[in-house]
Amino acid sequence: MRIPSTSTTPTQQNRHQERVHKTAMFSSMLKLMGGGGKDTKPKIVPCCRSGSDAQQGRRMTMEDTHVHFDDISEKYSFPKDITRAFYAVYDGHGGRRAAEAAERFLHECILKSEELKKNLTDDEVLEVMKGAFKRTDSIIMEQSRVQGWNDGCTAVAALILNTTLYIGNLGDAEAVIGRQKSEGLVAECVTYKHKPNSPEERERIEKAGGHVVFGRVLGSLAVSRALGDSEFKMPRNKAQDDFVSSVPFLKSYPLGPDVPFMIIACDGLWDKVTYQDAVDFVEGLRKSGVNPTDAAKRLVQKALDAGTLDNVSVIIVYFTW
């Protein structure tokens, strides 16, 4: 009687290797999406695609700067396991030098932090951002002292890790997301506008020994928080605290398939275009197949057509889920 062989044929071996390979690929995909293990469901993570535009407008000089990185993992030596992206707009005043320094240093201070490579809570990530704002302000203040200038800039920075948006902002540069709700795509402002005449900011300024006149710090500056502006900060203001603070508004927000895009811009846009109008405008362009760069250009032009007298800088980030 012939006994059947227990050895596998080359074809059977190839099929087995193919099944092993597919299983390994599936496991890797689960890890990339934040999942793995029998009790863990895979998470959907966004693919970020951004575009920007910046126009001088009717101003004599261009004092805005901006950065946008759709994938920071390779450049900053992070594992490619989750979505990591960074975006920021800096709106200079009194000159361009503070905005140029912020454009160079803020994201470096955040993304080169060894703490960010750890498994941090949302609050801990925001603390990293807070420290980066402080370090960047110190750099700008030192450059200001050495080179003899007083420029400042507002700032809005957005860090995306996996499915969480981390926001930090100073002054009136702001970010808005569109979030799908039962009534449609609704504009959700994810920043805070720091103005001297708000009750909290006025109280802080007066407690430090300053004052607010005609809605401006010492009758001069129209924002109450910014990078730089050394004449409004210790020691030059000869007060017990800074009149213009570099401590940012910080908050984290969940992202999901209900959020198709984000708009980040200086006040040159927001002074002329409402949050909801901007979201409706971009959504119409996105649905028509317009890429984020061209969408940003059209949104900037919308502000210019509306009569803004300011520089206008816009970053638009599409999220693909």
Briefly summarize what is shown.
The chain is α+β, with helices and mostly antiparallel strands and 321 residues long.
Write the layout of secondary structure elements.
Blueprint (H helix, E strand, L loop, with lengths): L9 H23 L14 E9 L8 E6 L14 E10 L3 H15 L10 H26 L4 E10 L2 E7 L3 E8 L2 E6 L9 H9 L4 E2 L2 E2 L9 E2 L20 E6 L6 E5 L1 H4 L4 H13 L4 H14 L6 E9 L1
Antiparallel strand pairs: 1-13, 2-3, 3-4, 4-5, 4-10, 5-11, 6-7, 6-12, 8-9, 12-13
Walkthrough of the structure:
By secondary structure, the chain is of the alpha+beta class. The protein is 32% helix and 26% strand. It has 7 helices and 13 strands. The strands form 3 sheets. Strands 2, 3, 4, 5, 10 and 11 form a 6-stranded antiparallel β-sheet that branches. The chain has a 5-stranded antiparallel β-sheet with strand order 1-13-12-6-7. Helix 6 packs across helix 7.
SSE string, helix = H, strand = E? HEEEHHEEEEHEEEEEHHHE
Largest sheet: 6 strands, antiparallel
Question: Approximately how much helix is present in the residues?
Answer: 25-40%
Average the pLDDT over all residues and give the rounded result.
90
Radius of gyration: 24 Å
List keywords for this structure.
single chain, 321 residues, alpha+beta, six-stranded antiparallel beta sheet, five-stranded antiparallel beta sheet, disordered N terminus
